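Lab notebook, bench 4. Still working through the backlog of constructs that have no structural model yet. Next entry is a single chain of 359 residues. Request: give me the structure tokens for it.
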Amino acid sequence: MPMIQETDSDNIRKTPKDDTNPFAKMAYRPRHKFGSWLILFAGAVVIALMVLLILELLPAKKEINDRLTAQFRVNEITALEVVARQKQKQLRDIFIQLPENSALDTSGWDFTNPAAGQLATLRQKAQANDDSAATYLARLDEYAILKKRLAELETRLGTSRLVTAGDTHFQMAFDFLISQTGKPEAEVRRILRDTRLQEPLLPGFRVWNFWLEDGFCTFVTQGDAPYTPDEAAQQVLQKQRQEKEQAVTRLNSLFLIIGSLNDLQARGILTGGFLKSTRLGNIDPEQFHFAIDLRNQRSLRVRSATLKLKKISNLVFFPREFTPGKDYAIKFGPNGRWVQITIFNNIAFRGRRIVIAVE
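Model written out:
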């Protein structure tokens, strides 16, 4: 049988790889390296697609998840509202001067948001070296940037409710908790008892309600209202203090109607007369215009000239329940030109309405 001799090409193909030959390694490396990179790239693409898919399927993470973050955002808005309000005042002051300084009829203009034609007129004035128009436009741009930034912060904070006339913070918070939590009314009222609520709410305020991991919180920002929540609260406190002071003053004051006997009878403040006892008529409390605060005043002087009398010879208190010498004393001046009344028993007269008839 003839022997089959292998060709050189077969020998080359079947020759085992010589790992000690550096040139052999170089010959094989490019093909293996390209394949490895291809596999790695394909794997990275698959992993990236899977991550994107998972992120799409996952619920969006809440940006506000605790009251500290919410408070921080509200503080940002409140601080920017103060700056925006200052800028708005500066803008208004410049706007008021435009008719005089720039010969413009600005009646009917919205000074914070002029119409396109009005802006074009202002720009023409500014290009003609009108300083007032140029300053106004610059301040308008600053104000617009602030308002835009404020709108962005409000968007990041969430959804608010605009306060209208008649709204109360309690009712707005109550409605939110009922609709968002499903809690019974008794539980909602208990939550609100422990919640600080803004008083009063002015139209234009914005109310922000949150039901978060650490419970309920609610905030009020100025929005479009003319005052900040703090300013509105201060006005309420000041009004309450004034009302309290007025109430205390009323309790410690003696309210008086003083006149001649004839004049008081003619006005119906006193009734009676000939053969009838003189007594008090039906008097509107608003008629007691004169009052003295018994905490710091115990006496008053009545002059005859003031009552159009020649002289004063006597006076009578109505009602007649007060005792001269004990509750009060009177002292006549020379020729009856005046009479001085001094109150001894201030407790008996405190908060009373008294008519003094002078003869």
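Notes after review: The two ends are 171 Å apart (CA to CA). DSSP finds ten helices and twelve strands in the chain. Flag for follow-up if needed.
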